[in-house]
Amino acid sequence: MSYTKEEVIEFIKMEDVKFIRLAFCDIFGNQKNVAIIPDELERAFSEGIAFDGSLIAGFTDESRSDLFLFPIPSTLTVLPWRSVSGKVVRMFCEIRRSDGTVFEKDCRAILKRAAQEAERSGLSIQFGSEYEFYLFQADEKGGSTKIPFDTAGYMDVAPEDKGENIRREICLTLEQMDLHPENSHHEEGPGQNEIDFRCSEPLAAADNALNFITVVKAVAVRNGLYADFSPKPLPEESGNGFHIHISVQSSTGEDVQPFFMAGILSHIREMTAFLNPTENSYRRLGSRKAPKYVSWARENRTQLIRVPAGSGAHRRFELRSPDPAANPYIAYALLIYAGLDGIKKKLNLCEPAEASSSAACAQAAAHLERLPETAQEAAEIARNSSFIQSVLPADWTSHLKA
Known about the structure:
six-stranded mixed sheet, 11 helices
């Protein structure tokens, strides 16, 4: 349900809400928040709630540190794992400077601008996500032991799949928040799980991603477990992917998907530092079914882009390189801008690479570009990219972790 400001205020009064969490994320996608009591809500809507931006990674220095959170009513959700005696709700926020201007490093605002540019171009773009994560036994302090919760494999069932009840609890919790996952199952690795979201418009998709990670971690803790979203938690097992499904349709009826895909392929090396932002990310790429070349295929899951069978409203393509360390707002924004560039320039889509990357001989792969092999290489490519400089704040690449 999408709320207005007035409906939020009424909801807070009628539903015995005791705390309101105002949420945002830093440039690395880490969720942050401040809690206010209901008496402060009117002020939050009209004046914003101040915080010290110099203490948030990548935001600002001490000279202009005053930033303000303005809650977005349409993002209201109840946090169902909190006490039912006095509800806790959360809203995502716009971040503004003291003069009222939008803060240039507000990740949600960056995605909002990208989505608006797509709309002005007559495009309807939706994103769906497949998040993979490991469940490990927790130690006495709640940290990870790296001991998998089970030893089941791909799409196994209980009793081998001990994560079945955890995934059910996660999905039911999400539904209580009016979020609707599409499916869930055990993945390849021991203790590894996957939960997928159907496609939705960009801002909702990114909000859902942040909500999802929060819910998974909360449910894991409640069950004495540790949820690990890192790209390669276990060196010898499958890594965690953040596979992004993209649906793009033009108001003119023109088939723009090939141009959009070509735009992403042409800029993917420049974007990799943001889609795969940690050193651990590069232990995953090129391993198992994680891609290592700039390529696409119609159904081959080892390639960078896969085009599943589908038509009409179900026509989409899947980008398989990103991992859960990525900031979803920035990932989706970059993909929109890259796709728009492909449409604007009517870039030709290269021939598909249908052979399995893991089995491809050197001759077959010789003509393909490789994705960056280290975080340092990816960061250097991003820093020298005119494309990245044109769509992200000027000093953004200086914060890359390499």
